[in-house]
């Protein structure tokens, strides 16, 4: 495997292109879902600046259950429609939250989190989980981050069959 290095880019577009190319290399040749999600969370943690938690919640038995992540211990179960992750899972739409304290029903697993982005993982038309990324600063994520991270989720969806472990 090629070593993954943190590289500075002059635009977010270039950064996310690099991130997606490296992510594809990381997950495309591995068939084990848990290994891929574990490496993906470590990968995002390595490359993304100003984050304090990144990981996956998987959709099981009509709720989200904690999957591979990097950061402090987190909430294990999240009800559909509850908090940012549950809202994302229910709506199947990315939630870009500049200030988590203004999000109705925010679930505070880590009191240091100030902003958050959560992207749904949908395979074969069905929810399989969400990618959750928290930051200790407000307004950490913008539309460029959303576009870049949604492309990363597309890469994961292409190469990682999450539904096989659900």
From TrEMBL:
InterPro entries: FRMsr_CS, GAF, GAF-like_dom_sf, Phosphatase_reg/MetRdx. One of its GO terms (cellular component) is cytosol. GO terms for molecular function: L-methionine-(R)-S-oxide reductase activity. Residues 54-148 form the GAF domain. Belongs to the free Met sulfoxide reductase family. This is Guanylate cyclase. The lineage of its organism: Bacteria, Bacillati, Bacillota, Clostridia, Peptostreptococcales.
